[in-house]
Design brief:
The chain has helices at 2-18, 27-41, 58-71, 75-79, 85-95, 98-110, 114-125, 130-139, 143-169, 177-202, 207-231, 233-264, 269-280, 284-293, 302-323, 327-330; strands spanning 48-49, 52-53. It is mainly alpha-helical and 342 residues long. It has a two-stranded antiparallel ribbon. Strand 1 and strand 2 form a beta hairpin.
Length: 342
Amino acid sequence: MIPILIITFFMVLSALAFSNKKTRGSSFTLIVLAAVAASISFPQFFTNVGDFELKQLIIPLLMLIMFGMGASMSVKDFANVAKMPKGVLVGLLCQFSIMPVLGFSLVTLANLPEAIAAGVILVGCSPSGLASNVMAYISGANLALSLTLTAVATVLAPLFTPLLMKLLADQLVPIDFVAMLISISKIVLIPIAIGLLFNHFFHGRFPWVDRALPLISMAGIAIIITIITAAGSESLLKIGPVLVAVVLIHNGLGYCFGYWLSRLAGMDEKSARTISIEVGMQNSGLASGIALEMGRVATMGLAPAVFGPLMNITGSSLATWWRARPPAQAASTDESPPGASA
């Protein structure tokens, strides 16, 4: 009875949030929380349909999401590197250093089970995703830099993610660098390349596709999180509170270090906010797909499944807080460090 009440509570909250323009952005996160509650309480409904294992949907859904990302981009997003080289360089250095090191440090301190700990590090070694672009837009940060960082970090992920995992997580679970590189390339590079071609040749010709792809991506992320949560529900119930705490600290410190290191590097306020969001918000869907490819979706896949909904809550909170404090105004007011409201 209690699980049903919790699921209903989140669904009602989502409907109320969607009915108000100011809170509409949080309705998706609330739906995901309802789905997570359902998959923990009734995992048998989200693991198999007859003889078909639902986890087999994860990779095709991820490839569809990556196609949507590619279709929403253009070659200009990559050409922007030449227009803002310092911002891109600082952002990429922060992206592929802060979160991997934080993830490794946190799981060492928390003494998590090895495979679950490797999942936390995997999230940290992943690039940012589309959610960071949405939060950059809401916050009034440097959206062009956000789009460029997401595009470049995603394309670099097939090299840097396996390399960082080999360095930081090989002692926890065996990491095959070449196999992971091939897996990420299949999941990321091929769909994005097809999406870029679609954008180049067919942009604007099928408006319904442009409208549908973001919705499909959101639905795909929700389904992936639900399937992974159901697959690892037993482990999640045992280790859940500790994992949630580790994920929240990982996410929050990502915002803080991303912001302050960018400021120390001489970035302006808007760009520092952008890098903060790009660093703190990772592509948890991609991390889930890698965990599945490694055959560890019920263990390594748990941290990405927890990280996804929580980063949307903290990211939207931070974006809303920053939106009320435009950069020009921020310099003349006493700002708390980013992540404080998350």
